[in-house]
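Task 17 of the worksheet. Students: predict the tertiary structure of the chain below and write it out as structure tokens. Keep your answer in the requested format; marks are given for formatting as well as content.
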Amino acid sequence: MGQLLAGLKDYAEDFSPAENESLMLVGNAGLGKTHAALAIAGIVLDKGCDVIYVSSPDFLARWRLPALTPPAMPIPCCAPPPLPIC
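Model answer:
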């Protein structure tokens, strides 16, 4: 677990919109995914980047089945953020 947390911290501290894309944390309930995502978002926000947090169920509900094609605008905003976190 310590290595995972260190890796997430490094990701957040080294984040660059030119080099990084979206981040999705996956796992069972109660493991701290939301806590980790919000901590990463805080660090990235402090660097002056925009962040959008969307829970995985909300994110997946915005995809049309069965083709799993993205909708025209999955999240209403002016421009896509450098780091969408699901």
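Marker's comment: The chain has a mean pLDDT of 77. Residues 19 and 59 are 23 Å apart (CA to CA).
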